[in-house]
Design brief:
Elements: H1 4-16, E1 20-21, E2 26-27, E3 30-31, H2 35-43, H3 52-58, E4 60-65, H4 66-71, E5 80-85, E6 111-118, E7 124-130, E8 134-139, E9 146-150, E10 164-168, E11 177-181, E12 190-195, E13 199-206, E14 209-214, E15 217-222, E16 226-228, H5 238-254
Parallel strand pairs: 1-3
Antiparallel strand pairs: 2-3, 4-9, 5-6, 5-9, 6-7, 7-8, 10-13, 10-16, 11-12, 13-14, 14-15
Helix pairs in contact: 1-2
Length: 255
Amino acid sequence: MFTQKDILTDFQRMYKEHWNYQWGHHETGCVDCSGSFVWSYDQHGKNIYNGSNRIARVYVRKVIPIAEARSKGLIVPGVAAFKVYTPDNKYYDLKDTYKPGGKYYNGDINDYHHIGLVDEDINYVLNAQGAKTGFVRSRITENWSHIGYLLAITYEGVEPVAETKMVVANLSPGTTTVNMRKDPSTSGAIIDKLKVGTVVTKSGEKGVWSNIYAQGKTGWIMSQYLSKYTDQPASLSLEQRVANLETKVAALEKR
């Protein structure tokens, strides 16, 4: 079992020993922001991707704005914390793989450019900040904007939920979207329309329906339209294939 105490101990060690920062590294004494998670996971026989945007979309139960998390008492030691650039920020640099038509597009186009771990004192975040400062303990009010419960971690006092990454697939020929409903019923209000290839988090079932989190919303979808997530794209819709081709053409034109 990999617990919040385990990952906190690892991150507190990085801070006390003042590990160095180097982009792309996840070695003892030298990590980048997401590399610190890779290093800690590796110590406990777990795997996680070295990239804050991928972690935000694939390896946490749900990304929650800090204001909302604070109002609901959801900020606890050992949750991931994120800094975000929105599309209107001059430093916004979200890769195409997370944008519409991309392999990991889930409706969220924020750029989660930095990640850390909430400390035992939840007013602070442990993080590999940069080459000049190395591993630091910064105030959560210093532009940290979202938190997320890590899927691999067992949190004390948090009801364990069997959550599984799934992908929207198996739609009827000619159909490109499936309804996500507020309630597990064909008469339930439609709260979103999910495209083929959308990655979702499944947390439960009720009859032929699956309870999911996708594109910033929690709702229900008929289980027959979900397939196991294998870190590979599902069959893409015509719209997605066209978007991918347009991206490739644009890249070639820049050469």
